[in-house]
């Protein structure tokens, strides 16, 4: 997933219910699918952020040594400004980028 080129809104947006439920015919099923995708996106972002921040990690026991690393601050600011995972999942859903399989019981 390319987080830099996403067009997902950062603020709250109202969506047309019929567009949300159109692929499945059931708004609750659509919301469940988007929620599961949002959890996946959130885990991907979290893993990516932890990996990037580990590059800046210092393993010292001294609290006297506090470094202000501008690159680390920029990485943190980038991830803070990203749209939230549910907004990214809704954008993917509306663009038809999410595939799902119906389970018949």
Automatic annotation (TrEMBL):
The keyword Phosphoprotein belongs to this UniProt entry's keyword annotation: no
Keyword vocabulary terms for this entry: DNA-directed RNA polymerase, Transcription
Superkingdom of origin: Bacteria
InterPro entries xrefs: Pol_omega/Rpo6/RPB6 (IPR006110)
GO CC annotation: DNA-directed RNA polymerase complex
A GO biological-process term: DNA-templated transcription
GO MF entries: DNA binding; DNA-directed RNA polymerase activity
Keyword match Zinc-finger: no
Name the UniProt record assigns to this protein: RNA polymerase Rpb6
Source species: Myroides guanonis
Native organism taxonomy: Bacteria, Pseudomonadati, Bacteroidota, Flavobacteriia, Flavobacteriales
